[in-house]
# Entry
Amino acid sequence: MSGNIKIKQYDDNRDDKAVFALMRLEADWGGYCDSVNVENYKIALKESLTYVLYNDNILCGFIRVRDDFGFAVYIHDLLVGKMYRGNSYGKMLIEHVADNFLNSTVYVMSDVDDYYHKQGYKTIEGRIIIVREKSSC
# Structure
């Protein structure tokens, strides 16, 4: 899928419906969309640093991260819709985060290690995967 790819910071007014529509299509993400958790996840999206990836006007994926006050950045959620996979959108989102935090180590809190290993990232301990170590001053 080629087109005009843009990564933008999440805006609930613009992105909310599309993000939740994408999540509802994924069996593992349904728990975030139920009536009990949807409002909490909306808060998590707004309170975290969340980026969305659009191809033309179609939201194809998003990434949600937390900055630990300059000590490290943790990727908590990464989702690319099934119909958009295979276009490197996940890697684009990960690298966008890493490029925006050159002075922090970027980690993934993962439950799908194989995906991150295929992208060239390595597990450092348990289920923590390192994307990029912080730059030396």
User: Anything to note?
Assistant: Helices lie at 12-24, 38-47, 89-100, 113-118. The chain has a mean pLDDT of 88.
